[in-house]
Amino acid sequence: MTMADETIILNVLGQYTRAHDRRDPDAMAALFAPEATIEIVDAVGGASRSISRLEGRDAIRVAVRQMMAPHGYRAWSQNVVNAPIIVIEGDHAVLDAQFMVFSILAAEVPDGGWPTGTFGAQGRIVPIEAGQYRLTLRTVADGWVISAMRIELRLPMAFG
Q1: Rounded CA gap, 98 and 154, in Å?
Q2: Contact, 61 vs 75, CB < 8 A?
Q3: Contacts for 115 with CB less than 8 Å, ≥ 6 apart
Q4: pLDDT digits 0-9 by tens, 128-158
Q5: Counting Cβ atoms within 10 Å, is residue 73 exposed (0-12), middle (13-18) or buried (19+)?
Q6: pTM of the model
Q7: Which of 7, 14, 28, 119 has the greatest number of C-beta atoms within 10 Å?
């Protein structure tokens, strides 16, 4: 295990969160091994109920296109990751990190500009997801790729 490997692995997670926030299916899929899996789990109150399972890079690409709503005008999401723990054993690694996703909506600038005395960022930021990312990675010729990912959600999810 080297510090360089830990940095590269953290960068994979950083690339994942940015692809998530941009809703970029190709950038997301490129981080995964061709046979990779993603398991999304309802972990509310310590439960462990499967919500969805994706198998293969193509399924991951499709899920980003179909399951993740595009951002509206002036809207964005920001995936914030903290407390990463990395364990590397040879050419395999596990990265466990907490996350929170925020919905960001920038305020519309008034026609006449901001009123006198207006100060600071204008808009709202609302937490919309929280949980745990657990990535299993392996080395390939180009570096580290995700071979499996488990996403444990701490808030219930509704699809409909």
Answers
A1: 10
A2: no
A3: none
A4: 999 999 999 999 988 899 999 999 999 988 7
A5: exposed
A6: 0.91
A7: 28
